[in-house]
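Supplementary Text 2. Reproducibility record for the structural model of the 146-residue chain.

All settings were left at their defaults, and a single model was retained for analysis rather than an ensemble. We include the record here because the model underlies the residue-level annotations in Supplementary Table 4.
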Amino acid sequence: MSDISALSHEYATNAMFADEINNLILKMKKYSFKTSGLDKINSKEIKDVQTKLVEFMEGLLVELKPESLEPDVARKRKGLIPTEVVERVRYQYKNALDYWIEDTKKIIGVLKSDKQIDTKGFELLDALCDAADSITSNSFRRLWRR
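Retained model, structure tokens:
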């Protein structure tokens, strides 16, 4: 692959992930905070959102600390999260990564049990969105410098 092709592929992958994770979290917030647009989010759709968020959060855990998940779950979730997002989270939370991992496990538990995500949980999800947006922006800049 040429440099341009590789950068283009990297940007497309990162942009699709950022778009998907942002949309999932936005739907979760609309549902949790009962904001306008709630009538467009039905119970089946919110279950799908919760399931997909669990998959992404487990995908992040398997990259950050593989032993934190059951081996069969770890195999299924491997590679779901772009490497750049994982590295960004690892760098950003390097001094508190173990706490961040524990908080991520709590959010997974909340999502699986249909409980409400608290403010701290949404802050963690927002941090994942920030990481995804940041790496997408970086990919775009690298692509257009070529």
